[in-house]
Specification:
0% strand, mainly alpha, single chain, 4 helices
Length: 93
């Protein structure tokens, strides 16, 4: 569970960078993804019995949201979002 938490925390940090560089049209989507990711990390840190299983189950939806944001982002924001995507994929393993 520690690896999953670390991957999700790193992805959350990358999303913060993406938010800083995102244009107005992407900010709400990046904020929504960041909020979802923060909730997952908080659940894992609370060490709930089924938190890891629930986090893994939600990763596909979060990955789909990030993919959509990548398609709409400028170059700088895309780099951050691609890093988020890669970290989320790593977390699924």
């Amino acid at each position: 569970m520690a690896k999953l938490r670390d991957d999700l925390t790193a992805a959350r940090d990358d999303l913060a960078n993406a938010l800083d560089s995102a244009g107005d049209e992407l900010k709400s989507g990046v904020q929504r993804a960041s909020s979802q990711l923060s909730d997952l990390v908080d659940d894992l840190e609370a060490d709930a019995d089924d938190a890891e299983a629930q986090a893994r189950a939600k990763l596909d939806d979060l990955l789909a949201d990030v993919e959509e944001l990548i398609d709409r982002a400028d170059e700088e924001t895309t780099e951050y979002l691609e890093s988020v995507r890669d970290r989320l994929r790593d977390a699924k393993e």
